[in-house]
Each structure stands twice: as C-alpha cells, then as structure tokens.
Specification:
The chain has helices at 17-30, 36-50, 56-67. It is mostly helical.
C-alpha cells in the first residue's frame, strides 16, 4: 500500500511559512501594514474558522474589527 499525505495548512507539520505568506497576502488585500502580530492574530482566527469554531460571518467580523477594514464576506 502506498499513501500520499498533503499537509497544506500545517495540520500535521508545524511551521509558520504558510501562515506568514497567507497573512502577508491578507494584509496587502486589506491595505494594512503586515507584522508578526497581524500574522498571529490572523492565524488564530483562520484556525478557529477551519475547525468550525467560527462561522464565515464571524470570521469576517473578527477580521473587520481587528484590522479596522470593511469586509462583506463575499
């Protein structure tokens, strides 16, 4: 038997490269300055949403409030 495991979001392996890259893109989209605090906050919210602990609406509301940007979730 042969298996292939793809670890796209750090589920199996720990590392901040994925989160750093994604949070930098999010900062650019939101027109905010990126720093490690942005990355850590976004990572926390992203993980909670991906685990089903936050709805998509809550995800966008948390990001909107934290980064003082207007997001509509579309």
């Amino acid at each position: 038997m042969i298996g292939l495991i793809l670890d796209h979001n750090g589920v199996i392996c720990e590392g901040d490269d994925f989160y750093k890259e994604r949070s930098q893109r999010i900062a650019k989209i939101f027109s905010i300055n990126w720093n490690e605090d942005v990355m850590h906050y976004w990572k926390k919210i992203y993980v909670e949403a991906s685990l089903g602990k936050l709805s998509l609406e809550e995800y966008y509301k948390n990001l909107s409030d934290a980064f003082d940007v207007k997001l509509n979730g579309n």
